[in-house]
Amino acid sequence: MEFKQIPQRKIPNILITGTPGTGKTSLAQQLSQSTGYVHHDISLLAKEKNLCDGWDDEYKCYIIDEDKICDELENQMNLGGNIVDYHGCDFFPERWFDLVVVLRTNNTVLYDRLSKRNYHQKKLTDNIESEIFGVILEEAEDSYKKEIILELENNEINDLERNLDLILEWIKKWESNQK
Ligand SMILES: Nc1ncnc2c1ncn2[C@@H]1O[C@H](COP(=O)(O)OP(=O)(O)OP(=O)(O)O)[C@@H](O)[C@H]1O
């Protein structure tokens, strides 16, 4: 059998994950503007391309079809220069990512952000508890090497700017290491 070797990417792929409301999309959008990398908001992609596997009546949201999402993104991920934004991280191929950012938010701040979305009480409480117990961080630690995981606080606007600068700095180093 003949294997086609995939050339090493020259620009990195970054996963931004964290509990809903921790600011993944805000950071991903700014990072995409600063770098020209492609922002993939997985929930949006699933809806737009019909990569869903039903409706979750308890949480009132679509259930994404993880296999279809991975198939949809595979070719683009091989090229590098992608920012993937999703509140889960254990179903993506590990080889896709060079950096995994886990955003964390103080529970009082997160409560305020999620209350504005009119989530029902159970969805609100479950998300706050998930953040308190660091469920997504644990999921990231179970799925990726710890050297590529970056846990970042995102409570106020200064945090967003600092996190953006940190990631831009990381990209510069990563790219110069590839030369
Ligand atoms: N550093 C910050 N300071 C203040 N507000 C912020 C900050 N980051 C994000 N926000 C605000 O918090 C809310 C949630 O942000 P955002 O939609 O980016 O979160 P998310 O993690 O992508 O959520 P979801 O997983 O549900 O898509 C938005 O109203 C956004 O403007």
TrEMBL record:
Stretches the record annotates as LID: 116-126
Keywords: ATP-binding, Cytoplasm, Kinase, Nucleotide-binding, Nucleus, Ribosome biogenesis, rRNA processing, Transferase
GO cellular component, one term: nucleus
Predominant cellular place of this UniProt entry's protein: cytoplasm
Keyword Nuclease tagged: no
Keyword ATP-binding in annotation: yes
GO biological-process terms attached to the record: ribosomal small subunit biogenesis; rRNA processing
Protein family per UniProt: Belongs to the adenylate kinase family. AK6 subfamily.
Subunit structure: Interacts with small ribosomal subunit protein uS11. Not a structural component of 43S pre-ribosomes, but transiently interacts with them by binding to uS11.
Protein name: Adenylate kinase isoenzyme 6 homolog
Organism name: Anaeramoeba ignava (Anaerobic marine amoeba)
